[in-house]
Amino acid sequence: MLLALLDCRKRLETWEKALSKSLIVRGPLAGLSLVLAAGLALPVPAALAGPAFDACAAAAASQYEPGFETIGRETWDIDTTKAIELCSKALREEPDSAQVKGWLARAYFANGDTEDAVPLFEEASAGGHVVALAIYGDMLTTGDGVDQDMERGAQLLTEGAEAGFAMAQNSLGLSYDFGEGVEQDYTEAARWYRAAAEQGMPKAQSNLGLMYQDGLGVPRDYVAAAAWFERAVDQGDPSAQVNLGKVLQDGLGQKADPERAVELYTLAANQGDRFGQNNLGFMLENGIGTEVDLEAAAENYRLAADQGMALAKHNLALLYEDGRGVKQNYKEALDLYTEAAEGGEMRAAVNLGLLYLDGLGTDVNYDEALHWTQIAADAGQPIGLNNLGHIYENGLGVTADLDLAKSYYQAAADQGYQLAVDNLARLNAGGTTPAVGKTKTK
């Protein structure tokens, strides 16, 4: 069983707390200078800001906006009912304020009301309000509540980033990281992550740490990666907790510390982070950094699986298949493997093929066995390649074809899969004993 990819990156920490768009966290770059963009919405001087404006700001402003650092908040911390009421009142008093429009749009967005948010985001973005530029830029990039337009999204994010707004800088880093609306450029991605990270944005610090960990846009440096993760961990960021946990679990650039890795995964899991839940389940299942607790492992896998995580579904299915931590239930394992395989987890596709091949939780069905094993093999999964060789060697629902079987064994052997090496050697030596150990993926 393999751990989840621990670089859980998010486009905007502000509203999608549970979303895990896999992000790279990279390390700091020196010498970044920022230029204020024309049209930047600066804080309204106190003499011009009325009580309604102040109340709206306190309810819906971002802590990364200049002048609102002490009263701003994350999007998920907005009391949307109160914020919509207060900002609607403020907009009636100051109908031309781009800031109030942006804050009211943010409150609508936090409430899941994109229909009312979008027109206000349009007007606030045109007025240079940095919060609107960041959130609306992300919406356009991802197609969230609007027609997807990555190029325009990147343009808005650039305007907000150049104005010095951390949320826009982190999101622009993501755009360069994944080539969304701009040409992929890891150096630019790291540059913008660093700009936001230096302003204390934990998601950007985590993303910058991943850049150092992976050597993308900056030299690979596990010590720098861990340092940036630590800074985000100090702010309670679950992505950083998971990422630092992985560094400590694997001993990357430092002595392995599985006990602290468990502590970090637990912190992330307690915040509902599915990567933390899955990885904590793995540690509990295998007794790494903690005592073995199969029931707790199953529960953590279930929590992550309920959030749609394909790998967690695969891991939970393994427990159901073997009856470890849960009552053995082949049908439940079959269903979970199916969901995980449909979600792109090729290890689950391998195991699903085996259940159909052996008739566990279902009738023997060679067509389904071939279907799922072929999918895994086509994706280059070595056990899937080996098992497909087994199917063709033994004519399980197909015409036996030793040459084709050898080709699949060879492809798996080329990846170092020992059972395939043994099977290929046996066939080349003229052996006729059926392939042994159609092993489950772990």
From TrEMBL:
Q: Which UniProt keywords apply?
A: Hydrolase
* InterPro entries recorded: Sel1-like (IPR006597), Sel1_AlgK (IPR050767), TPR-like_helical_dom_sf (IPR011990)
* Keyword Hydrolase tagged: yes
Q: Which domain of life is it from?
A: Bacteria
What general EC class does the enzyme of this chain belong to?
A: hydrolase
Checking Pfam families in the record gives: Sel1 (PF08238), TPR_19 (PF14559)
Give the EC number: 3.5.2.6
MF annotations from Gene Ontology: beta-lactamase activity
Q: What is this protein called?
A: Beta-lactamase HcpD
Question: Which source organism?
Answer: Devosia equisanguinis
Gene name of the record: hcpD_1
